[in-house]
Design a protein that fits this description.
Blueprint (H helix, E strand, L loop, with lengths): L3 H10 L9 E6 L3 H13 L2 E6 L2 H10 L4 E5 L1 E2 L2 E2 H11 L5 E5 L4 H9 L4 E4 L4 H21 L4 E2 L2 E2 L10 H14 L5 E4 L6 H10 L8 E5 L5 H9 L16 H4 L4 E5 L6 H13 L1 E2 L8 E2 L3 E6 L3 H6 L5 H7 L2 E4 L10 H16 L8 H9 L5 H15 L12 H8 L15 H19 L4 H8 L3 H11 L16
Parallel strand pairs: 1-2, 1-3, 3-6, 6-7, 10-15, 10-16, 11-12, 12-15
Antiparallel strand pairs: 4-5, 8-9, 13-14
Helix pairs in contact: 1-2, 3-4, 5-18, 7-8, 11-13, 14-16, 15-17, 18-19, 18-20, 19-20
Length: about 500
Amino acid sequence: MNDDRLGAAQRAGAGERPAPIAGRILLLDDDRIVLGSITALLQFRGYDVVPTSSAAAALRELGRSDFDVVIADLRLPDGDGMDVLRTVRERRPGVPVIVVTGYGTVESAVRAMKLGAFDYLPKPIRSEHLCEVVKQAVEQGARERNASRLPHRGDGPLSLHNVIGETYQMRRVFELIEAVADSTATVLIHGETGTGKSLIARVVHQLSQRRDGPFVEVSCGAIPETLLASELFGHVRGAFTGAVRDKEGKFKAAEGGTILLDEISCASPALQMKLLRVLQERQFEPLGSNRTLTADVRVVLATNVPLQKEVEAGRFRADLYYRINVVNLELPPLRERLSDIPLLAEHFLRKYTERCRKRISGFSPEALECMQRYQWPGNVRELENCVERAVVLTRNSQILKSDLPPQVVLAAERGVGLNLSGSRPGSTLKEALAEPERRILLEALEAHNWNRSRAAEALHINRTTLYKKMKRLGISLPPQRGPTTAGLP
């Protein structure tokens, strides 16, 4: 801890009135000075802190009562902080764990994040930074507990728990979902194929006041253009050849609930005009009818194509784009969520081992490495299919490298996560190498909590070079990150 936290501790001891209880924290550190300093700092910030100096004592406290956050040192007299992290994740999966250590390495940081740590903080820790991370962890834990109370649907609870991710990109998505879910604003979800746009739309619906109403999903790209307007708005008998009876459209079926218009970029210009009227006036007419109907429907749209470019190319109405682009949820591709891959893989493993009635303990380190080197052009959907295939075909008690699809194994054996089959014909070597370079920089930055000085040291390049590479590759700092003790983050 830096000297500024001593001032906080002294003020707390001098009798200043602490803030209301902001959360309960289990603190584990074998250094009594650090333990006392962090305890005093967090107590002054309004937290109820239970300090422990051994893994055994921490696990006893964890069994006795509930905590909002666990802060654990890595090096302990009676064990490893990783074991404590693993135990907390098993016993109390909704409790965020912040790992701190004075002996930080890239390997330990990556290992901690793979095991599900909320954050990894090397010592010395700035007091303001620690308090900000603790505040974010408490808020995330509260969000997950609230989401777990949502009603069940199908295979299990439909909540933020089903949207798995602990990277800063996914935390930002969770924050936006919570902020917009209970409003009436139109939501535009953008992401590559397989990133989970439909699942996100369902979560928005379930978190809204319309959760008891219907959720209707329409894939605009899967329905012929000539039939799409009829599918959405309905038609009356005789409206066109083959219309032998009246038909209720999807907007009417979604009355009082939510409608998801997937692949909205496939809508024709005529249909775009009808959608603009529905969004602006909440009214529409079935095909062949003069009767105007009211649409009491929350509209969520999804696309895997950047609509701004479609507007510039003249294929999408600018006025419709500005009308639907009220709240934009950007879903990151899986190749930018490396630390989420083990979490997602374990989730799918549990799902398919139960379905196939098999006992499989997990993945071998080689299998996980293969999965993290692969580019996943099909994103989360492709990862799920990969795990399902491995569960069905394996005869081992653990998923091995040999159980994975050949293209995943081949990518690992090449030594870099290049997806050459998906590269543009005629691309230059510089263009082909840009994506693996981007992944390497992201791994280093995430491993060092986005501290650019430490990441540059780990990569054996100077900080200026790292800044230039980040700018060239389009890597921006995550939101709400303050400066660190090493200088600029």
